[in-house]
Specification:
There is one protein chain. It is globular and about 70 Å long. It has 17 helices and 17 strands. The chain has about 475 residues and is α/β, with parallel strands linked by helices. Helix 11 crosses helix 12 and helix 13 packs parallel to helix 14.
């Protein structure tokens, strides 16, 4: 499908919601608009199918180690193999352009019990053309084969929308149109997204669908969104943490849905709310280095605008009856527990009194929901848990997730560090469900739609002539 720069400009303006051009849909409406994998059942054997894969993984020595995202792709890949599709997997590995998908391709081969060749240098970035060698490799592969393209983030075109504004789009529309058209002309015109975690504005996820004749959500992604993700929209208890205070945006959007009744916080997120609550109550509270301008270039620094945002959230939350359960003590950088954070000090975990408070409040939540259907969402870890000295709060709270589930509360974990902590200190069946993509879950539960759902819905509308 040929894509003109004018078409691509309009596409990207909708994608970035420039001047309110993007249609406003709920998560359910996006999911209803996007075809599922079974809609491609009539795609003929031998047809190339582009699969945006969840390939940002670090496979370990054997199957089951570091490959959960790759294993999430197998149902879709098996579906395609059974129908004789030539599936071309593409996606990114990390943020560094030099990262390679060599181990990912090898592990996918083990999982699918077939050879998965890795096609390197598949794009000439100076001309934005797909190499003839790549096109020939796809054309000559037999029906049912699986191939992989090398890390998409090796090419600048994959990342041009990350920080783009509406003013940037006119100059980007031509190269983006050229790239998308090349992919359609030389690789495939049928596209499946089976990359739950690919929530960034990557060109492979959000622009390439513009040139596709047919698109669909992969089996795993569709199940995650239509099942546990939609259920999380009704969560009443949120356990939220993060090193960066910008997680306040996600929490604020979740609270705005009107279902959240209780919020546990830790990390920089909690520091912003703790400071805000103290100011609202006319009390002093020092954040230590987190509010020191000399540390403004550090990820844990909390700017004044975030404190103001937190004040608004706490004030509005109190009016709505939302209870913010905030830390009452902290583990400082020297390993000591303290109820205060002095100048030059940094909190790196919640303290033992906070753990006791969290456990008490978990009990209160359970007691108030006996015999009722309720859900809890847990995201992040409470401290610098990769260091044993600051892992105590996270380790202790994992047992509370099991306690919630055993009391009949549905417990969802947002993946990423939270999932890693559960794997380290608990068992998968201690909770109801663990997502493989923390960022995408936060997008879906927050105020902004997941970019690739926007793109797929627009592509599906084009497919229908809409």
């Amino acid at each position: 499908m040929s894509v003109t720069p004018a078409f691509m400009l309009d596409w990207c303006q909708k994608l970035l919601d420039v001047d309110g051009k993007r249609p406003q849909h709920t998560l359910s409406e996006y999911l209803e608009a996007i075809p599922k994998l079974d809609s491609l059942s009539d795609v003929a054997s031998g047809t190339p199918v582009l699969v945006r894969g969840d390939v940002d993984a670090k496979p370990g020595a054997k199957i089951g180690e570091g490959d959960i995202r790759l294993r999430s792709m197998t149902e879709t890949l098996s579906y395609g193999r059974e129908r004789g599709w030539k599936q071309v997997i593409f996606g990114h590995r990390g943020r560094k352009p030099e990262e390679t998908l060599a181990k990912v391709a090898a592990r996918l081969g083990e999982l699918m019990e077939c050879d998965v060749p890795l096609l390197s240098d598949w794009l000439d970035e100076s001309t934005l053309t797909v190499s003839d060698k790549t096109a020939e490799a796809i054309a000559s592969s037999p029906p049912g084969s699986i191939l992989a393209l090398e890390n998409t983030r090796r090419y600048d075109i994959e990342r041009v929308l990350w920080k783009a504004t509406g003013d940037d789009l006119p100059k980007l529309s031509e190269p983006l149109a050229k790239f998308a058209g090349e992919v359609a002309a030389k690789i495939a015109t049928t596209y499946v997204n089976e990359a739950l975690s690919a929530g960034s504005l990557d060109t492979s996820s959000t622009v390439v669908p513009a040139a596709m004749q047919r698109v669909a959500l992969g089996a795993y992604v569709a199940k995650e969104f239509t099942g546990p993700m939609l259920r999380c929209l009704d969560t009443e208890l949120v356990i939220f943490s993060g090193l960066k205070a910008d997680k306040l945006d996600d929490l604020e959007a979740m609270i705005a849905r009107g279902k959240v009744k209780m919020v546990f916080t830790a990390g920089s997120l909690a520091m912003a709310l703790k400071k805000a609550a103290a100011l609202l109550d006319g009390q002093p509270f020092s954040l230590g280095v987190a509010e020191d301008p000399g540390h403004s270039d550090k990820p844990y620094f909390i700017p004044e605008k975030r404190i103001e945002q937190a004040k608004r959230m706490v004030a509005e939350g109190r009016e709505k009856g939302i209870e913010f359960v905030l830390p009452v003590d902290f583990i400082l950088q020297d390993g000591s527990a303290s109820e205060t954070i002095g100048p030059g000090q940094q909190q790196l975990d919640i303290g033992p009194k906070t753990s006791e408070l969290f456990e008490k409040k978990v009990g209160e939540f359970i007691a108030s929901h006996q015999g009722q259907r309720a859900a809890a969402f847990h995201n992040g870890v409470f401290g610098k848990f990769e260091e044993e000295a600051f892992a105590g709060g996270t380790k202790r709270f994992v047992g509370q997730l099991k306690r919630l589930k055993e009391a009949g509360i549905e417990v969802f974990v947002g993946g990423g560090e939270g999932g890693a902590a559960l794997e380290k200190y608990g068992q998968p069946d201690d909770v109801t469900h663990v997502f493989t993509a923390g960022g995408t879950v936060l997008n879906a539960l927050g105020g902004e739609p997941v970019p690739y759902l926007v793109a797929l819905s627009m592509a599906a509308a084009n497919e229908k002539g809409g």
